[in-house]
């Protein structure tokens, strides 16, 4: 897959006659627009539907709990047996409700399952093309990258000398993490731990991005920046209505103010 991706990137560069900095940005934007953006929209629709089903699910759960309590008491079952039976039927009821409404929660993981491997694939391909992979150490497959940078990064084969691009990587990643954290009204302990871990990784990414060729850090920055724009747009009520995302109680009318606070 890495070799095939390299061939595709080189073919796009040759066909478009764009410099490598523009090729990297263009490919990133096209991939995010055609692949991850539709998945993100679908994910937001699914999350909204699941949230709207919560009152119904809560009423059904209470009714099930009452019914099971009466039946277990009549049958002389213990509390442990009641809990086991109730939880089993509750899971089945929840599954049937979500399936009936076309809201399989597993579909929410489609975005990271596709986005992360794609990000890794492009990153490894660029690493190989710049001669920084272990199998091709000091063997640059695209020497023209040395002169097809832009602005303060004319050489894409060396790290960004100003560290501006690595800083952009960290800031954009951290912004994405904070925007995702805003979705959770009452995060669990696990979610808080994961959020803090991702925050630390964002800081680590700045240091890591400052050590890799600019071709790689540029891709990371553009991808993360696209993610910020995507997340901001998907928080706007007007945009959400245009995309067919249902209105939910947790939807904020002032997403920018929430992010700033």
Automatic annotation (TrEMBL):
Keywords: Membrane, Transmembrane, Transmembrane helix. It is a multi-pass membrane protein. It is found in: Membrane. One of its GO terms (molecular function) is membrane insertase activity. Residues 20-234 form the Membrane insertase YidC/Oxa/ALB C-terminal domain. It holds the Pfam family 60KD_IMP. Belongs to the OXA1/ALB3/YidC family. This is Membrane insertase YidC/Oxa/ALB C-terminal domain-containing protein. It comes from Nematostella vectensis (Starlet sea anemone).
């Amino acid at each position: 897959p890495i070799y095939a991706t390299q061939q595709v990137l080189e073919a796009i560069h040759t066909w478009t006659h764009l410099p490598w900095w523009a090729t990297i940005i263009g490919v990133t934007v096209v991939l995010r627009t055609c692949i991850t953006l539709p998945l993100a929209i679908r994910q937001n629709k699914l999350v909204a539907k699941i949230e709207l089903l919560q009152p119904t699910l809560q009423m059904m759960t209470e009714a099930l709990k009452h019914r099971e309590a009466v039946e277990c008491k009549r049958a002389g079952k213990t509390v442990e047996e009641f809990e086991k039976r109730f939880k089993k039927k509750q899971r089945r009821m929840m599954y049937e409700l979500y399936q009936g409404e076309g809201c399989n929660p597993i579909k929410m993981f489609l975005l990271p399952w596709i986005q992360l491997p794609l990000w890794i694939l492009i990153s490894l391909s660029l690493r190989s093309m710049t001669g920084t992979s272990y199998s091709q150490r000091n063997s640059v497959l695209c020497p023209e990258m040395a002169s097809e940078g832009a602005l303060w990064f004319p050489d894409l084969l060396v790290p960004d000398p100003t560290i501006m691009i690595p800083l952009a990587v960290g800031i954009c990643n951290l912004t994405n993490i904070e925007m995702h954290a805003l979705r959770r009204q009452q995060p669990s302990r696990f979610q808080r731990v994961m959020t803090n871990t991702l925050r630390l990784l964002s800081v680590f990414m700045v240091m890591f991005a400052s050590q890799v060729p600019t071709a790689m850090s540029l891709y990371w920055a553009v991808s993360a920046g696209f993610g910020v724009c995507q997340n901001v747009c998907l928080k706007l009520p007007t945009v959400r209505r245009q995309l067919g995302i249902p209105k939910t109680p947790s939807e904020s009318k002032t997403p920018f103010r929430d992010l700033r606070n």
